[in-house]
Every structure is written in structure tokens, then in C-alpha cells.
Design a protein that fits this description.
Length: 370
């Protein structure tokens, strides 16, 4: 029995060399025992403890049609207003109890989402060298986790992480110019949806609908195209994306049918059941801080899949770096900080400790254990 990991036979020159570069780091997870006891082994000869999948949950499902149907009419009837109020109440309840929900009738054309998926698959099929070194999409390609010193800090994935300001720039696309129009359309649609949702969340806390609109800026908002290649290293601790909270106001996520997104609910990890009709929405750190912990930025992660690759697209709504993130009411739980300060702190923590600390850095008083 050998302890060496083998790359999947079907691999082409498009896959990033995750195993070659990080295989040794991941070996820490798999010490093959001396004696052949009851330990299971995967197809690659690696000893694995049984992986127990957590319970699969249905995220709260919210129908946005009260907001998206007939939206070009300026007059809203009383019945429609009541429907909107009920919908807004559901959004706020899910944002405080789960930090996550899914939306249907969201106003984003399904055909557009399918076109994007096709283009995304074609993009990731490009040779690794092209993705990494040809300046594609503003040089925004990332893979693996260069700063990881242990498996718990490592993400088995590749991604393009593109600021909205670069999406219309034809020079970013090289041979992938057909992606430009789809990216532009999707970014505009997701931006509209994200701004509508934060407007609803602000209004329910007694603030102006447009409270966040003026703070949000194209240069800091981004689209992230994720690909999680099938992963031969099967264990509890190989992540497609390590556990984290999002450092923004709000994220909109379109995922394929494979599954693998898990989130913390009442201190337990639960797996999100994929729904191809819906988009997933999650609250980021900045909305949690602004709402004084009413809305929750919840930890989530992507687990690897031994057999199937997985794709997702995430839109991150962020303010400009100078924006001051205050609180919606006093007494405030967090000190005021700018988004620039927050990003800087996250990067410093990741650099020095390998992990993000996030909001606890900005809490005014630590909660005392009773
Ligand atoms: C190492 C990290 C960077 C990251 C936060 C994290 O601890 C783990 C995930 C990273 C990620 C991935 C998606 C987004 O691009 C991002 C902004 C986020 O919210 O989580 C980044 C984080 C980051 O760079 O702040
Ligand atoms: O791919 C997913 O399902 C989640 C992606 C994510 O959490 C992120 O990009 O921040
Ligand atoms: Fe995330």
C-alpha cells in the first residue's frame, strides 16, 4: 500500500496543479495505519475515516414577485403593498435567524444564468497557463491557497475574482470575448437585485431604502467565478473553500446542482440542498455590524466532492473603501470603521495567522461568559 496521491486520469492541461503543489500539505490528513485494520481506503489508496454527511437543509425560500412583478408601474395598490410587507418581513426574519435564504422570481432571467454557466465552463477549460499568465479577466485568476500552512487553511478550488469596473473592458477577455456581454448583463442584474435587498433590509431597521446605495461602488463590488475540481483527497477536512464569513454587505450566489455548500445553523454544520430555480443570498459582515448583530453574517464553507466538479458564481455587494460603517442604532456593538480598514485587517490576519478574524476585532466590548 502506498501513501502517494495520484492525479485523476481524466485530468487535462486545464486543471491547476493542486495535488502537485499541495499534496504534501494534505498528506497531514492521511496517515495510513501500520496494520491493515478496519480503516477504509479511497480509489487512490488513501486511508480515510468515514465521512459523515451533515443533515441537508432547505434554506428559507422567499418569493420576490411582490417586488419584481410589474416593477415599471409607479402606482402600488394597497394589496400589493401588504404583499411587499409580508415578503420584507420574511427576508428580515431569515437574515436574522439564518443569515442565508434563497429567492425565486428574483427577476434574473434563467436563460442568462444558463448562458453564464456555459461561458464559465468554457473559461475554466482554458489551459492552466492561459488562465494564470495571460492577463485574462484583469489577472484575477487564483487557485489553491498559497498562504496555507495546514490542511484546515487550504481551499481546493480555482476562481476569477473580477471588480465590476473591469467587466466591460474588452481588453480583459482575449479569446473569450463572448463572455463579456454575459458578464455585463449578469453583473447589472445581480447588482439591481442586491441593491433592492439591502434597501429592504435597511427600511425594516427604520432607515431610508437608499441608505446603502450611495455607499456602494463598482470598483469594490465584484463577481467571483468559482470552480471546485473533483478532489481525490477524501476527508472531513478538505475544503473546496475554507470556512469563512463574507467581508461585504451582501452576497448573491448561483450554484449548480452538485451541492457542497454548508453553513452553520445553531452551531451545527448543515448542507444546503441545491435548488436550480433559486438564487442564494447571504448577509455579509458589514450588514451584521451596521445592524448591531440583528442580521447575521454566518460562517459557511464548500466541501470537496471526490467525483464531480462544481461551479458557482458569486456577486459581492461592497461599499467604497472610504465608507464609514456605522450602526443603525445606539448603543453600538461595534466601533465605527471604514471598509478599507476592515479589508486591511482581514488581509493582515490572514497573512499572519492563516485565518480571518473579522468582526470580533471591531467589537467594543467582549461578551462576558455568564
Ligand atoms: C483566507 C480568506 C480570504 C477570504 C476570507 C478567508 O478567511 C477565507 C475565504 C476568503 C473569501 C473568499 C470569497 C471572497 O472573495 C472573500 C472576500 C470572502 O469573503 O471570503 C474572501 C476573503 C477575503 O479575501 O477577505
Ligand atoms: O461556491 C459557493 O457555494 C460559495 C462561494 C463563497 O462562499 C464565496 O465565494 O465567498
Ligand atoms: Fe462566501
Amino acid at each position: 500500500m502506498t501513501n502517494s496521491l495520484k492525479y485523476p486520469k481524466s485530468g487535462s492541461n486545464s486543471s491547476p496543479p493542486l495535488l502537485q503543489n499541495y499534496g504534501e500539505l494534505l498528506q497531514q490528513l492521511h496517515k495510513v495505519p501500520d496494520t491493515d485494520n478496519a480503516q477504509a481506503h479511497n480509489d487512490h489508496g488513501i486511508a480515510v475515516p468515514p465521512v459523515l454527511a451533515p443533515a441537508e437543509c432547505q434554506l428559507p425560500l422567499i418569493d420576490l414577485s411582490p417586488y419584481t412583478r410589474g416593477s415599471n408601474r409607479s402606482l402600488i395598490l394597497e394589496g400589493e403593498e401588504l404583499e411587499r410587507q409580508a415578503c420584507a418581513a420574511n427576508i428580515c426574519r431569515a437574515s436574522s435567524q439564518w443569515g442565508f435564504f434563497q429567492v425565486v422570481n428574483h427577476g434574473i432571467n434563467h436563460e442568462l444564468l444558463w448562458r453564464m454557466r456555459r461561458e464559465q465552463a468554457r473559461l475554466f477549460e482554458a489551459p492552466f497557463e492561459t488562465k494564470a499568465n495571460s492577463g485574462l479577466l484583469n489577472n484575477s485568476y487564483r487557485w489553491g491557497t498559497p498562504s496555507a500552512t495546514c490542511p484546515a487553511q487550504f481551499s481546493w478550488s480555482e476562481a476569477f475574482h473580477i471588480p465590476l469596473t473591469k467587466i466591460s473592458d474588452a481588453a480583459c477577455y482575449g479569446d473569450y470575448i463572448s463572455l463579456r456581454e454575459v458578464m455585463m448583463e449578469l453583473a447589472a442584474a445581480m447588482s439591481k437585485l442586491a441593491r433592492m435587498l439591502v434597501g429592504i433590509l435597511a427600511e425594516r431597521m427604520g432607515h431610508q431604502k437608499g441608505a446603502f446605495d450611495s455607499m456602494c461602488e463598482e470598483s469594490t463590488c465584484f463577481l467571483r467565478l468559482n470552480r471546485y475540481p473533483a478532489c481525490p483527497v477524501l476527508s472531513h477536512d478538505t475544503f473546496g473553500l475554507v470556512p469563512h464569513t463574507d467581508s461585504n454587505f451582501l452576497t448573491i450566489l448561483s450554484q449548480d446542482q452538485v451541492g457542497g455548500l454548508h453553513l452553520l445553523k445553531d452551531s451545527q454544520w448543515v448542507a444546503v440542498k441545491p435548488n436550480q430555480e433559486a438564487l442564494i443570498v447571504n448577509i455579509g459582515d458589514l450588514l451584521q455590524a451596521w445592524s448591531n448583530d440583528v442580521y447575521k453574517s454566518v460562517e459557511h464553507k464548500v466541501m470537496t466532492n471526490e467525483k464531480m466538479e462544481r461551479y458557482s458564481i458569486a456577486y459581492f455587494l461592497c461599499p467604497s473603501y472610504e465608507s464609514l460603517i456605522g450602526n443603525c442604532r445606539e448603543p453600538s456593538v461595534y466601533r465605527k470603521f471604514t471598509f478599507g480598514e476592515y479589508r486591511h485587517q482581514v488581509q493582515e490576519d490572514v497573512k499572519s495567522t492563516g485565518r480571518k478574524v473579522g468582526l470580533p476585532h471591531f467589537r467594543l466590548q467582549q461578551t462576558l461568559a455568564s
